[in-house]
Write a sequence for this structure.
């Protein structure tokens, strides 16, 4: 019952945050503020890549800014030293700087934060930490750290929706370029969900679809000439649309798509505003989740619903989906999308969430989808 109540609370909060986000553009909220006493109440520690990666970091940061702005609180972001080569020590140093700078809540984005976050949570027990794309953490004795709230998403559902939609819209030669080198569970779920959705739509249409699938050049989630060259080669050989699943990798994939007059599926946030090549984006509510978990610290619900716990958000919490107001679908309809979402919520459609790392997806037998692993 407590879990059900927590999810209902999450849904209500998510919808409230979404409504707020529609009236205040996070881009209009400054990234830096001046604190009169030199302290910053809410902090954000970035994942690898840029703060303004137009994806995972930026989406999470937007949630931090929106909550702080709405509640008149100071805020600050911290980027670990050494950029894409940041170590666990670099991440810990950023978290420690945030705690020592007066943070009551520190939001840390990305699965790479786990080791540093464990150390920081033990060192600063008076600070609450939000672990986006994370899991509950424990100390060396196995005691769960109750000042850490873990948030994860059913990315397989978002990936499924995107894969299903683009195939129903007429695309049959797809690509997936993922971040994390094939070891990032969120990206793994996105990719496998994308394949499942594409296969399901292809089976309904009675067509065969191919999917080029690669983790190359994505280990650091960064844009690179090598990634752009690889994806440009895909487009030249007939690939029509690529799911750009990895932070700043988006920039290289969009550049390749623009040069080839081809298309892209964005990830995490609505990326249609960044390029005309983006047909749709596989969304997860990272901004809303950040606001929701920060709010729990201030409204007294942290201990009951968040501290030491994992909250998994998906279709039932309206935390995954496609941006229907900005997509450029020509055949796939809003009514079809809503029917698909309802099926996810009712449980008549279940998307397999198996974490297929690296080339393991090639072991899956698809009826109407051929995986070309690179």
């Amino acid at each position: 019952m407590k879990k059900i109540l927590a999810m209902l609370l999450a849904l209500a909060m998510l919808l409230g945050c979404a409504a707020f986000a529609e009236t205040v553009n996070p881009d209009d909220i400054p990234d830096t503020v001046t604190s009169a006493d030199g302290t910053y109440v809410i902090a954000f520690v970035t994942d690898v890549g840029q703060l303004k990666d137009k994806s995972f970091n930026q989406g999470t940061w937007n949630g931090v800014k929106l909550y702080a702005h709405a509640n008149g609180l100071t805020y600050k972001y911290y980027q670990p030293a050494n950029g894409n080569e940041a170590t666990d020590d670099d991440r810990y140093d950023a978290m420690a700087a945030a705690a020592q700078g007066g943070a009551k809540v520190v939001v840390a984005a990305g699965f790479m934060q786990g080791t540093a976050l464990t150390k920081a949570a033990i060192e600063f027990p008076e600070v609450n930490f939000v672990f986006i794309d994370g899991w509950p953490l424990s100390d060396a004795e196995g005691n769960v750290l109750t000042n850490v709230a873990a948030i994860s998403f059913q990315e397989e559902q978002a990936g499924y929706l995107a894969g299903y939609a683009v195939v129903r819209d007429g695309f049959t030669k797809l690509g997936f370029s993922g971040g994390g080198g094939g070891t990032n569970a969120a990206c793994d779920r996105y990719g496998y969900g994308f394949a499942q959705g594409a296969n399901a739509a292809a089976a309904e249409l009675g067509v065969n679809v191919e999917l080029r699938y690669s983790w190359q050049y994505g280990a650091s989630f960064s844009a690179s000439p090598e990634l752009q060259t690889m994806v440009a080669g895909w487009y030249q050989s007939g690939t029509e649309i690529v799911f750009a699943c990895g932070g700043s990798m988006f920039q290289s994939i969009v550049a390749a798509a623009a040069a080839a007059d081809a298309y892209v599926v964005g990830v995490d946030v609505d990326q249609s505003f960044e390029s005309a090549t983006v047909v749709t984006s596989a969304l997860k509510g990272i901004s809303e989740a950040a606001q929701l978990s920060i709010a729990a610290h201030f409204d007294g619900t942290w201990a009951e619903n968040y501290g030491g716990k994992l909250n998994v958000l998906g279709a039932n919490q309206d935390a995954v989906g496609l941006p229907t107001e900005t997509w450029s679908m020509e055949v796939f309809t809003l009514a079809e999308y809503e029917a698909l979402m309802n099926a996810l919520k009712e449980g008549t459609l279940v998307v397999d969430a198996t974490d297929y790392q690296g080339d393991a997806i090639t072991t899956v037998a698809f009826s109407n989808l051929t995986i070309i692993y690179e």
